[in-house]
Every structure is written in structure tokens, then in C-alpha cells.
Design goal:
Blueprint lengths: L9 H11 L3 E2 L1 E6 L5 E6 L2 E6 L2 E7 L9 H9 L1 E6 L5 H6 L18 E2 L8 E2 L4 E13 L4 E13 L4 E3 L5 E3 L1 H4 L3 E2 L5 E2 L12
Antiparallel strand pairs: 1-13, 2-3, 2-6, 4-5, 5-10, 6-9, 7-8, 9-10, 11-12, 13-14
């Protein structure tokens, strides 16, 4: 089947892309609201960009009414965020936190996820997420007629659950992917687990 993208609506292009570019990692992003409380939202237009500086990318559109998503507003306001990598057991809560709410109505009030305040971090992290990254806004670009935001975030510090960490003699930290059990995003309401994890030796 050949598909002419120009003949499709933006919505249909979105569904085609999200069902074809799979699996995608999920960034579960916590930011501080202007008033009390925190915003928590998942994004699967997310990936690593560079290691020097250590940058990741988040891409997000707007709310159905055309206003900015709360995550984008908060990042622009505070310049700070915590990006979590959720595990498969958290899939239902990740989905629930994607619901569109009024600004200031925290998703954390609708799911059972305690927070932990790491020393020196301006924001808390989700206690049960296997990986959390404290990050700061590095740069923001807008793309296309609807001004889709591409947000570049610089990682300042990692938190990784102890059971997910393997330390080697050369001081390189290996992460046990099976222990992380990262949630992968597919299309529609579908998710996936990593399944079998296998290793292939690199050519020397």
C-alpha cells in the first residue's frame, strides 16, 4: 500500500505516524503550576538528542480549544521539569494523566502516585517511576501552521531505582532494561512492553 500524505487530514496523518513509528518511549512529565500543585502529563513524541550537552526533545501540540498545553505553559514559566520513564504497571495511570483538565486541576489528584522530594531538586519526582530526570528548558522551537512546540530540555541529574542499576569496573553505569520494564507507546490506546531483551556483540 502506498499512501499520499498530502491527501490526508492532519488528524489522519497523526494516527498513521503514531501507528507506524513504533515503539516510542514515554516521557511522563511533571511541572509546577503557577498556583499550588503540579501538572503531570505523558508525551510520546520524545527522545534523546545529544549527550554534550545532554539534551532530550519533547514535542507537543495544543489543547482542543487552541490554548497552550499546561506542560508547555509551566515549562515556559519556571524553566524546570522532571521527566519520568514509566513502567508497564503504570500504563493505566499514564493514560489517565493524559486527560484534558482545567489549568490548576492536578492529575496527581486523580491517580495514586506519591511524590518524593530529592535534596537539591526544585521539583519532586514520582516515587514509583523507575527513572526520573531533572531537566531545564534549553530551547523551544515552533513548527508548522499550528505552532507545534519542539522543546529541548537539558538533563541536570538522574534518579534511577537501585534495582535497575548495574555498575561496572570502568565506572560506566549500565541500566537493567528488564528491571526498568519501560512502557512503550504504540498507536491509539495501545502500549507494549519490551518483551524479550537480547544482546548482539558489536563488531571489533
Amino acid at each position: 500500500m502506498r499512501i499520499d500524505i498530502s491527501a490526508l487530514s492532519a488528524n489522519n496523518v497523526y494516527h498513521l505516524m503514531t501507528q507506524s513509528i513504533i515503539p516510542r518511549p514515554v516521557a511522563w512529565v511533571l511541572t509546577a503550576n503557577k498556583g499550588p500543585g503540579y501538572n503531570l502529563a505523558p508525551f510520546s513524541y520524545f527522545n534523546a538528542l545529544s549527550s554534550e550537552p545532554p539534551l532530550v526533545m519533547l514535542s507537543m501540540g495544543k489543547k482542543p480549544d487552541g490554548s497552550l498545553k499546561d506542560t508547555r505553559s509551566n515549562i515556559l514559566n519556571t524553566k524546570q521539569l522532571v521527566i519520568h520513564i514509566p513502567n508497564t504497571a503504570q500504563a493505566a495511570e499514564v493514560t489517565e494523566s493524559a486527560r484534558t483538565l482545567e489549568y490548576g486541576d492536578s492529575e496527581l489528584e486523580h491517580i495514586d502516585h506519591p511524590l518524593v522530594q530529592e535534596e537539591g531538586w526544585p521539583l519532586p519526582r514520582l516515587q514509583d517511576a523507575p527513572i526520573a530526570m531533572l531537566a531545564e528548558l534549553y530551547e523551544l522551537h515552533e513548527l508548522g501552521p499550528n505552532k507545534q512546540a519542539v522543546i529541548y530540555c537539558e538533563i541536570k541529574e538522574f534518579f534511577i531505582q537501585d534495582e535497575c542499576v548495574i555498575k561496572e569496573e570502568n565506572n560506566r553505569i549500565n541500566i537493567d532494561a528488564t528491571a526498568v520494564d519501560a512502557l512503550a507507546r504504540l498507536g491509539g490506546g495501545e502500549y507494549a512492553s519490551l518483551g524479550e531483551v537480547f544482546k548482539i556483540e558489536r563488531p571489533k
